TrEMBL record:
Protein name listed in UniProt: L-threonylcarbamoyladenylate synthase
Keywords from the UniProt entry: ATP-binding, Cytoplasm, Hydrolase, Nucleotide-binding, Nucleotidyltransferase, Transferase, tRNA processing
Record-listed E.C. numbers: 2.7.7.87
Gene: ywlE
Native organism taxonomy: Bacteria, Pseudomonadati, Planctomycetota, Planctomycetia, Pirellulales
Transmembrane segments: none
SMART domains tied to this protein: LMWPc
């Protein structure tokens, strides 16, 4: 019997489509789901019979275990509680999106231990687990509605290519599927990039939508300093931190990226492109850390999402950041080690700026020590 095919765009109520997919998965059926990369075959990961059915549908050789489709980085930590800062960083920056992370399968503390023993060979036979958060709205809705975990693998055509349309899923798998959600051609039309993360080491297992250089950039630790206009305090802090970290790591400032570190600054009310104030520029030249080419930028969703550590100058800046982005609280730390505000020197003379810089340098030393010690920057 051929599968039921539902055109998502033409559905009267997408919620009904989601409920049908959830019901089919809960009943142990195979469902073809759209993702931004290729179409995937999904089943209930807690159902060994469904997993066996999916392996049979995929056909030999079944060399790679199935991934778990998850909603977010927070859910990933439930399956691999000790996955480490680099995996966490990649998940925060790449998900939902076309990257599959292969991490340690924690069979003692992770949720994977709650799955039937018969499910383990299909998901983590070698002690690692693939995790994928697809960037497709209807598939995300299905994952949110289903109580249990979902196993996911790409739908392959007879010639080995991945299916990128619902029609290709039906052509390739036919009555092995119970339901196909047709959300049009996949956006990218090529597989996800697969990255194995073990501690502070990464290995590209498959280059897909996202290339090696982008993955390398995504693994860098990013520190962002925040003030109001991004012309005085935060540019000074950025320059001082870059200089100090480069000294500690024994590299030129412009090679910090090669050591996995990035430093930036932004303002809550910045005028994009504005130069550093004359006093700021003068002090930084005195320190041998010229910022004549500085261009102010506004704090953005993208910058905040990617940052590992956000360092505001005042408690007011901190409150403003957390009000807009409540989930960033654990990644926000005031510059001053005892929580004092770093007052804005704007409008003051050069000596006011010197006093401000002295406070900034004190805070930078504190945070640099923490970064190198706690986040394990190699080579320090």
């Amino acid at each position: 019997m051929p599968p039921v095919v539902i055109n998502v765009a033409h559905a009267d109520d997408v919620r009904d489509v989601v409920h049908r997919a959830v019901q089919a998965l809960a009943e142990g059926q195979l469902v073809a789901l759209p993702t931004e990369t290729v179409y995937g075959i999904a089943c209930n990961a807690a159902d060994p019979v469904a997993l066996e059915r999916m392996a049979a549908a995929k056909g030999p050789p079944q060399a790679d275990p199935f991934a778990l489709a998850i909603k977010s980085a927070d859910e990933a930590e439930d399956y691999s509680p000790r996955w480490g800062p680099i995996a966490r960083r990649l998940a925060r920056r790449c998900w939902p999106g076309p990257v599959t992370l292969v991490v340690e399968a924690d069979l003692e503390e992770g949720l994977i231990r709650q799955l039937p023993a018969e499910a383990i060979p299909y998901l983590c036979p070698q002690g690692t687990l693939g995790l994928r958060a697809p960037a497709n709205q209807v598939t995300q809705d299905v994952l949110r509605m289903l109580a249990g975990p979902v196993a996911l693998t790409s739908a392959k055509l007879n010639d080995g290519r991945e299916a990128v349309t619902a029609e290709e899923c039906v052509e390739s798998l036919g009555d092995k599927l119970a339901l196909v959600l047709d959300d049009g051609p996949s956006r990218y039309g090529q597989p996800s990039t697969v990255v194995r993360v073990q501690g502070n080491e990464i290995e590209l297992l498959r280059e897909g939508v996202v290339g090696q250089q982008t993955i390398d950039r995504m693994t860098r630790l990013l520190v962002v300093f925040v003030c109001t206009g991004n012309t005085c305090r935060s540019p000074m802090a950025e320059a001082v931190m870059r200089t100090l970290l480069a000294e500690r790591l024994g590299v030129p400032v412009d090679e910090l990226g090669s050591r996995g570190v990035q430093v930036a600054s932004a303002g809550l009310a910045a005028s994009p492109g504005a130069k550093a104030s004359p006093q700021t520029a003068e002090l930084m030249r005195e320190r041998g850390a010229a910022i004549d080419d500085h261009a102010a930028q506004q704090v953005t969703e993208h910058l905040v999402r990617h940052a590992d550590l956000i360092i505001p100058m005042t408690s007011g800046h901190e409150a403003a950041l957390v009000e807009v982005w409540p989930d960033i609280g654990p990644r926000v730390k005031l510059l001053d080690p005892v929580g004092r505000d770093i007052a804005d020197p704007i409008g003051g003379g050069i000596e006011v700026y010197r006093q401000c810089l002295a406070q900034i340098e004190n805070g930078i030393r504190h945070h640099a020590d923490s970064l190198i010690k706690e986040l394990g920057i190699a080579g320090a």
